[in-house]
Amino acid sequence: MRIGILAYDGCLAAEIFLFSDLLLIANRVARETGVASEDPFQVSVIASSASPVTAAGGFPIGAQAWHHDFDRLVVPGFELAPSADLDARLSGLSRETAFLRAAEARGTRIASVCVGAFLLGEADLLDGRRCTTSWLFSSQLAQRYPRASVRGEALIVDDDRVTTTAAFSTALDLATVIIREHLGDDVARATARITLVAENRSSQAPYIVESMLPPRRGQFVEDVGRWLVEHLADPYDLPRLAAAFHVSTRTMLRRFGAEAGESPLSFLRRARVRAAKRLLETTDRPLEEIVSLVGYRDAGTFRRLFVEQVGVSAADYRRRFRADTRGGENAPERGDRASRPVDAARRD
């Protein structure tokens, strides 16, 4: 399989080499295990001309001049901050987007890592397709390319020869998917275990930090949202909420929905899960106590809501993200006992 990785000024070098190095190791595994007699993957780093590309951070990357003799093209992301001028950044990549458009028209499969999805969008390759990108920029992707169906919590989305992935480390997930497709489960599993790569990640929802997402609210929603968080543990009471802001329940639902794109109850549920995540990360409180602290009386209802929003169970989330990792999979091998973290409920 011939794979070209499209390098360009400002791209993230690690996304190129994470992807290519995992395929390199898969080649070795396939040959050592007798699955293949020669390297199954031929990987090239390509660019608009055969000269070094300056990656983000100023690192030079050697590249071949691009051509169209590839089965698949992979587009890494680039350095991007939420406050950056995306129009200016993408306007400088018009040659790259034209190349991608031509490659897709020839039948080449296209994949992006992280915000490389914006280059696919500029090439009109996301129109009418499902796609994803880093959770931090998924709303921006959806706004810029309204004909795309952005799945902001998905880790990898494949739709009609176009594959998009979430942030940075999903270069490894993309490579693993390709290895599994072409060499089978055994080679994919062996490669993942040799390199300590997670084999079955399916969602980026557990990693989302909502406080880092761009605001999409007006002042009314900010005020109502603050009131809901202050009364997080209270039962949801729409008439009480409306009375607190001197409006009817109908007006409350209409104004909040128009500004926030969701109902007050939906906002409250997300706020409750967000508070539960902090408590799971930073305290030893039992789950039953956390359920009560964030306003639920039925633990089963909370568990279902948590899995629906986060993609993993509360117990799994605590194991992955517990700030004090004593005894966990990320625990350091040392004898000193970490100090007890601050109680998140008191900070709130």
Features:
348 residues; alpha/beta; two-stranded antiparallel sheet; 15 helices; globular; disordered C terminus
Please provide a written account of the structure:
This protein is of the alpha/beta class and 348 residues long. It contains 15 helices and 11 strands. The strands form 3 sheets. The protein has a 7-stranded mixed β-sheet with strand order 5-2-1-6-7-11-10, sandwiched between helices. A two-stranded antiparallel sheet has the order 3-4. Strand 3 and strand 4 form a beta hairpin. The longest helix is centred in the N-terminal third of the chain and has 20 residues. The C terminus is likely disordered.
Number of beta-strand segments: 11
**Shape estimate:** globular
Extract low-pLDDT stretches.
325-348
Radius of gyration: 23 Å
* Alpha carbon gap, first and last residue: 53 Å
How does the helix and strand content classify structurally? alpha/beta
Oligomerization category of the chains in this entry: single chain
Strand content range? 5-15%
The main sheet comes to: 7 strands, mixed
Number of helices: 15
Element order, helices and strands? EHEEEEEHHEHEHEEEHHHHHHHHHH
Q: Kindly report the spatial arrangement of strands forming the biggest sheet.
A: 5-2-1-6-7-11-10
Mean pLDDT: 89
Task: State the helical fraction.
Answer: 40-55%
